[in-house]
Amino acid sequence: MLAGLARGQEDSEEKPRTAVVNIQKLFKNFHKVEKTQGEINTERAKIQKDHNDTMGRIRSMDEGLRQLVARLQKTDLELRDRASLERERGMRLQERESLDRERISTAMARHGELNRKMVVRMENLLEEIREIVAGHAERTGYDLVFDIEGLNTSQVPMLLFARDAPDITPMILKELNKNAPVRE
Q: Residue 129 burial by CB count (10 A; 0-12/13-18/19+): exposed, middle or buried?
């Protein structure tokens, strides 16, 4: 009798409804990700332009230093003029090295800050995707939604098999991009 009751209870328990989703595909095709990547690329281009402008100034300083060295190599310079040119060369060299150090440290700092911003922005977009997946699962009655591309720390897929689990990626992608600006 107990076995019959246990079997009856098992039969009445509903199996959890599961679905699968491809988070990488959603992320890659989410219109806000493309916009964010464009903004980040614009910021990177500005950093590169500033870097190139500074390099142009450094090359100009190098040319001035070469001309100074050429003047110093003349044998008919008076001792007083040679000493003045040596001082000028030393000051210009110091100014050039200072600008080069500043160029390197500024570029590294700006790239580092941009990378930090990028990580935060991408995490926010991923969270937005997760919220939409959760909302969709709640509305459609799914108990569990697995990422079919998700890997564990050993780089092995977390989900190895799911019988009859519908892939809701296309529905989520449609929902994510419902407010996307129209492309021209």
A: buried
Q: Which of 39, 25, 19, 41 is nearest to 126 (CA)?
A: 25
In terms of Cα–Cα distance, which of 175, 149, 171, 172 is closest to 162? 149
Three-state SS letters, 119-133: HHHHHHHHHHHHHHH
- The most distant pair of C-alpha atoms in the chain lies apart, rounded to whole Å, by 120
CA dihedral sign of residues 51, 57, 58, 63: positive
Could you tell me the pTM of the whole model? Answer: 0.72
Residue keyed to tokens 């870097």 = 51
pLDDT tens-place string over residues 32-79? 999 999 999 999 999 999 999 999 999 999 999 999 999 888 878 888
CB contact set of 117 (below 8 Å; sequence gap of 6+): 40
What does DSSP say about strands 144-147 and 18-21: parallel, antiparallel, or unpaired?
parallel
Distance from C-alpha of 119 to C-alpha of 170, rounded to nearest angstrom: 26
How many CB atoms are located within 10 Å of the residue 82 CB?
A: 13
